[in-house]
Protein 1
Amino acid sequence: MHARREVLLIAGGPWHDIDHARLELLTLLAQVEHLRVIVRDGWDVAALARCDVLVTYTCDLIPDPSQIEALIAWVEGGGRWLALHGTNSRLVIGEDGKVATPPLPEALFDLLGSQFLAHPVPGRFRVRPEAGHPLTDGIGAFFVEDEHYLQRHAEGNQVLLSSEFEGETPLFETRYWPRARHQTLYLRPRGKGAVLYLTLGHTRGRHDMAPITDAYPFVERGAWVHPAFRALLTRAIRWLDRDPALESPHAS
């Protein structure tokens, strides 16, 4: 029998169907009997201190300096953090409707390993493996419909999946993008712990764009309905739970 392991799930922020993401993640976490989950909609370092595992699905939810210090200490002390989709986003919507992405606090950027800068209109794009790892073994290249995250990346990420983009993102401050690869899934070791970042997972309902509009015309479920994404999430939870089969052969 496994020992009980405490999980902190933080799901909060604008422009997304946070209820949908929270429910999906709780359903997946509940499949591992000994994982017990504390749920918050904002940063709670007191709860984090009691937990072994952190899962975040957020947008434009930036921890303050003391919270960033607590996150760094927690990861360096051996904590494992699964960061999903917009956790690395900081957004300011101008009067003209254009979206600016001011820099994340440097310490947070260094901990997470990336920052969201833009995405084109949600659509179909190809994700491909970059390196062999138990988290992605047997998952070949696949097409998915989601928000295609374009980012700046820190040095030191172990890139497991990536995608390629060239084109325009007219809603964002950074509009023109030369052809380049962007990290879709990566591991970022830090001290005795690590961050696992997966950019897929956009979800939006008809009432998630207020106050810009009260009625969004579509329900968007992005990668949540894709088998490869579900498989990656299931493996990520096993990695959080320190399943030896999901460890890198090079891990200490």
Protein 2
Amino acid sequence: MVRDGYIYGVSLLAVALVAGWATGRWEWGIVPVLLAIFFLWFFRDPERAIPSAPGLIVSPADGLVTEAVSISTPGGPRQRVSIFLSVFDVHVNRAPIAGVVESADYHKGKFVNAMNPACAESNERNIVTMRGEGIEITFKQIAGLLARRIVFPLKQGDRVERGERVGMIKFGSRTDIVMPADAEIQVKVGERVKGGASIIAIMAAGAMAGESPQKRRAAQASADPDDEGDRR
């Protein structure tokens, strides 16, 4: 369990005891006890079996896949998978790959419903870029309608292993992961995933070796130019 669960849970149990003692009526403690149980459950942090095969990108969060699309970025084409976390999901975030944190940029913002695609650019968010296993990925911790705090204790230069706990978002949120254009997406919209355990994508051997997607596409086009349009 995340430490916050004990803080909230124990505090509310203490409130229940004080309310019952001060009023002489035990029913005054029902609401604080129920809230304590909720917080102890919400801040659960179950162990996960992390896939160990090379080239895998695992989910950074538990939740529902709401988007899996190709996007354009200043660095070229990428693929993005969005995961919505309700208050019923585990909110601990995990590293999608093993590697080094290149940057972590926190942005203040609004608290639009996390199901709304616009929240990725307007809401409070933390944008983390990691490099490792021959690739670079970015994932966003995005606050939702109820979320009021993003936790990310790591800093630039820190190294993490695939599936390692890297923070959390409190009370409903969204997590986006942006990957290379040639990652083979393994999930579909409407599918539920588990942080650290579910495989989001698989990288080709060339990408893992550090070969750029542009070079691979150029080599493929030279070998069989008639197929270039189909591959794109």
